Amino acid sequence: MDKKIVFSGIQPSGSPTLGNYVGALRNWNLLQDEKRYCYYCIVNLHAMTVRQDPGELYKRSVETAALLLACGIDPELSTLFIQSQVKEHAELSWVLSCFTYMGELNRMTQFKDKSAKHSDNINAGLYTYPVLMASDILLYGTNLVPVGSDQKQHVELARDIAIRFNKLYGETFAVPEPYIPKVGGRVMSLQEPDKKMSKSDNNPNSYIAVMDEPDVIIKKFKRAVTDSENVIAYSPEKPGVSNLLSIYCTFTGKTMEEAVAGFEGKGYGHLKKAAAEAVIAELSPIQSEYKRILGDMAYLDDIIEKGARKARERALVTLNDVYKKTGLRS
Ligand code: TYM
């Protein structure tokens, strides 16, 4: 099948990290530039699964839209929109929840991780989160879903739901595939390199935020946890150093062999400095562009409004088809 429709989403909670950027946003750009048709969504309904400050949530959604534009998302080529403004997502989610088994949701590792982290608020939304995500993807006839490796299991569930529904009611949904970068699909914490880098980490030294100033980026890399060997090599026994090497390769375009050869005989300080500089060189122009875009709220509001209108048009076609096939009728 010609893989041309792309869908992905990002939560508007906190400042996006280097993990979000490498695992997802960078590929969003590449796929757009390959002239595929892309839908990029700020998933504020998913963000509701943890408590949000109402005054902050919409502001953060708009800021996330500005960041996506600053990263290179072109509203002429891609549809950029906020999830809650396209009501079809929530409607399809209800229908699909009737085609998803509890056994499947019980297996989702993100649910297990998040319920351990938010033990005072294990709500039903956290549990059915992957069904809403499947709805996001399936509404648009999506073929490819660019995500970090932590979301692979959710995309696979979306595939299973699509196949199940198609078997029962005839060809309705395209069956999507995850699209995960070979290097950088899982950027690790700078402080605990056996854990994924996450914007919800309590220790800000564990992640680089896309909006961190250059001196902050340098400081965080300097403090990154490594090991006591002082040998620059890529290996599962050296998670801290391997993570720094992966980041370095991602931002310089070098292969792992080239990078390791280039650092031969050098110390960890050298690797940390080189990784920080490569990251700063790519993020600095994005940061300036972000500030410029946020200064033009009329432009931003217009893009968000047009994005929702375009997304709604497409989403409604799928939802109407589903309602018709299942006998619901709208
Ligand atoms: P979210 O907001 O947690 O993260 C957005 C994207 O960033 C990737 N990512 C990472 N990649 C590599 N290393 C990391 N340390 C890292 N941390 C995050 C995530 O894999 C993701 O691609 N459930 C999704 C949002 C979503 C979605 C969708 C995605 C909702 N509906 C439909 C795709 C399609 C999430 O929470 O992403």
Q: Quick gist of this model?
A:
The chain has 330 residues and is mostly helical. The chain has 13 helices and five strands.
Question: How is the secondary structure organized here?
Answer:
Elements: E1 5-10, H1 18-33, E2 37-42, H2 44-47, H3 54-70, E3 78-82, H4 88-97, H5 102-106, H6 109-117, H7 124-138, E4 144-146, H8 152-169, E5 177-179, H9 214-222, H10 239-252, H11 256-262, H12 268-294, H13 297-326
Parallel strand pairs: 1-2, 2-3, 4-5
Helix pairs in contact: 3-12, 4-7, 4-13, 7-8, 9-12, 10-12
The structure holds tryptophanyl-5'AMP.
Largest sheet: 3 strands, parallel
**CATH topology (level 3) name of the largest domain:** Rossmann fold
CATH superfamily of the largest domain: HUPs
Helix content: 40-55%
User: What is the global morphology?
Assistant: globular
Structural class: mainly alpha
The total beta strand count reads: 5
Which features does this protein show?
330 residues; three-stranded parallel beta sheet; 7% strand; Tyrosyl-Transfer RNA Synthetase; mainly alpha; 13 helices; Rossmann fold; two-stranded parallel sheet; binds tryptophanyl-5'AMP
Question: Could you please describe the fold and organization of this structure?
Answer:
This protein has 330 residues and is mainly α. The chain has 2 domains: 4-184 and 297-326, 3-Layer(aba) Sandwich (Rossmann fold); 204-291, Tyrosyl-Transfer RNA Synthetase, CATH 1.10.240. 55% of the residues lie in helices and 7% in strands. The protein has helices spanning 18-33, 44-47, 54-70, 88-97, 102-106, 109-117, 124-138, 152-169, 214-222, 239-252, 256-262, 268-294, 297-326, and strands spanning 5-10, 37-42, 78-82, 144-146, 177-179. The strands form 2 sheets. The chain has a 3-stranded parallel beta sheet with strand order 1-2-3. Strand 1, helix 1 (18-33) and strand 2 form a beta-alpha-beta unit. The protein is globular and about 70 Å long. It starts with a strand and ends with a helix. The mean pLDDT is 95. Tryptophanyl-5'AMP (TYM) binds at residues 7-11, 19-20, 22-24, 43, 46, 133, 136-137, 145, 147-148, 150-151, 185-187, 196-197. Tryptophanyl-5'AMP binds at residues 7-11, 19-20, 22-24, 43, 46, 133, 136-137, 145, 147-148, 150-151, 185-187, 196-197.
